[in-house]
Amino acid sequence: MTLSEFKGACNSGNPPVGISDELLALWYDARGNWNRAHELVQETGGFTAYWVHAYLHRKEGDNSNASYWYRRIKKNIPPKSLEEEWSDLAEYLLKSEMDV
């Protein structure tokens, strides 16, 4: 799936089948369901879940909590828009799923 296809899927009523919890979290976030997105990454560990978790807290406006999660993946809060980071995350996750 391409980034463009995933963005299009975010406008449909159902998420794409077989995607990772991290991509599912981004799908819920794009649909305005921050709480469900956050629940998904709280239940998951590892680099990509922590990155999505950091992004979600940044979006929430909780930069202290976001900084904690960015530090866990050895990143700083990015100097870019939330929309740009969402796209970067989605593209990274989509590529990672294709590499598996």
Please tag this protein with its features.
single chain; globular; 100 residues; mainly alpha
Give an account of the 3D structure.
Helix 2 runs antiparallel to helix 3, helix 3 (34-42) packs antiparallel against helix 4 and helix 4 packs antiparallel against helix 6. The chain is 68% helix and 0% strand. It contains 6 helices and no strands. It has helices at 3-9, 21-30, 34-42, 47-60, 63-72, 82-99. By secondary structure, it is mainly α.
Question: What does the secondary structure layout of this molecule look like, with pairings?
Answer:
Layout: H1 3-9, H2 21-30, H3 34-42, H4 47-60, H5 63-72, H6 82-99
Shape: globular
Count the beta strands.
0
Number of helices: 6
Note the gap between the termini.
Answer: 13 Å
Percentage of residues in DSSP E strands: under 5%
Helix content: 55-70%
Compact summary:
With 100 residues, the chain is mostly helical.
